[in-house]
Amino acid sequence: MELRRFLSSRTALMRASQVRELLKWIGRDVISLGGGIPDPSSFPARDLREILDDILSSRPEVALQYAPTEGVDELREELARFMGRRGIKASADNVVVTAGSQEALELLARILIDKGDVVFMENPTYLGAIQAFRIYEPRMLGVPLDGEGMRVDVLEGKLKRARAQGLRVKAIYVIPTCQNPTGISLSGDRRKRLLELAEEYDFLVVEDDPYSYFVFEGASPPPLKSLDTSGRVIYLSTASKVLAPGLRVGWLVAEEELLDKVVTAKQAVTLQTSTLSQFVLLEALRRGVVERQLPRLRKIYRSKRDAMLEALDEYMPDGVKWTRPSGGMFVWLEVPEALDMSALLYRALRRYKVAYVPGTAFHVEGGGHNTARLSYSYPPVEAIREAIRRLASLISDSLRAPQGAS
Length: 406
Ligand SMILES: Cc1ncc(COP(=O)(O)O)c(C=O)c1O
Description:
By secondary structure, this protein is of the alpha/beta class. It is about 40% helix and about 15% strand. The radius of gyration is 21 Å and the shape is globular. The site of pyridoxal-5'-phosphate has 14 residues, from helix 5.
């Protein structure tokens, strides 16, 4: 029977994540620079076991029970304090706990986007955001980046044009610190200018911030939310990169007026975030486990970043460029125009035994065929060096031979 005829027309807008597809290759002697997957050695398993033990002995009746949709009150209070230490003024009422930031993206798309609304994104941007937004049929417009992050001057030009065309600009989605996929951070001046533009052109700013906890050089720049005076910044963060992604806990900070609808939307999507995971995060914050993680994470990922950059310097042929991230998990690679990194992926996996994410997946308006995201977070240092050596061979060989041959 042909069952696909029952599918809604909405499913035609859904695209499988290339990163999740790539996960299937991990372990088949392929070294993966694909997903932004935390280093398993960073998981504070012993602390978490103790916490779980304590929770299940002392409060099983609440930790295993349903909880309010907006999240466990004590956790929301603790998160408000945690945010306060990063310069974000929030009370528990401004916090909703989500099933990772990915759910927050879905919830925001549900409550904010009407068909045809303009949503600006960095180009390239996080593909999970593109995936979440696309179903609601916004007009996603890309803003290019340079070494200081999003080109806010280009954004301004695009805003003027959108206004002249009578388009409704709803929001900008931005990852200002150690961006996914480029590793670039938005400069201080541009942060201020972006917020001025948001006032001038009256749109919301969705700030996605999973990586600012491990900036390797200098201080972490202030979150946009900490500079927000009018309440138009919606801030997302997550325990995925600082504690463990398997907990599936994230949080969203915004004005109560908006959170009301976020909570109603969440009732229909997940009802609530796992109560047990919320208690684990609560205790990890209270006992200083998260704070103690941060210097460890900086050390682990900094040495991996260095290994990748050194290997790129050593092995890549002329004409290949890459970013030098000051934190986070990603390097962005640009190869000569003649190569198509999507077309090369299969060969990379089968023959060279290395995985990466082709850059096209991160672009909202096409382009990026000669780019790729390389993640240094998961493989051990030696494997990173070997992966870059393999990738460099693939690129050198492909530059010599016409694409498609061999
Ligand atoms: C920018 C960005 N946003 C959101 C997410 C989703 O993270 P999670 O749902 O695990 O919190 C990720 C994960 O890699 C990310 O890089």
